[in-house]
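Amino acid chain
________________
===
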Amino acid sequence: MLLLLALLGWFHALTLLPLVQAVAVGYTAPIFISLLAMLVLRERPSRWIWLALLLGAAGVALSLWPELRASPSADRSARIEGLLAAGCSALCYSGVVVLARHQAQRDALWTIVLVQNLLPTLLLTPAVFWRWQPMLGSDSGPVLLMGALATLGLLAITWAFTHIEASRAAPLEYTGFVWAALLGYLLFGEVPSAWSLGSAALIVGGCLLLLRR
């Protein structure tokens, strides 16, 4: 259920925000993950992890600052809606990760991945008969690739949580912001601003600090 809500919020945010900005808000998830890990899994992050999280949070805040200073407009309202959708998606995703870490200690990797993929499909089945729009043949390739990458990502993150604490793995996800900036430029012509580059520097710095630890 949480994964389904996270996906719906994420795709809605992508219709309203540039890729880099959507990813920046989405990467508040590691902060939620570490906090939930302490509450649910009783994990106790070290001071190095707190510093890495602080740098990542500062990077996200830096990327959002220009948007918060913008003058009110219709576009600004849509972007705020997108920011809220991305934030809700991040919160739901953090719940998915913490539960995956909890179940990874007793269930098989393939069982967790199967449930994460199959249950949202079943829950979305009624929508097929409600607002179904047939997919164009030219879209099949990108959609299949997206499904393959999503499955590979779920396998990788679930495998990671069987070997390390959730709070230790969470800050490493911040590196996705750098890849989003690169792909946004190559695929959509979105040129990262100085704010975005500064944000990426803080995020990478936090990850390097965590890896050094």
In short: The chain is about 80% helix and 0% strand. Residues 138 and 144 are 11 Å apart (CA to CA).
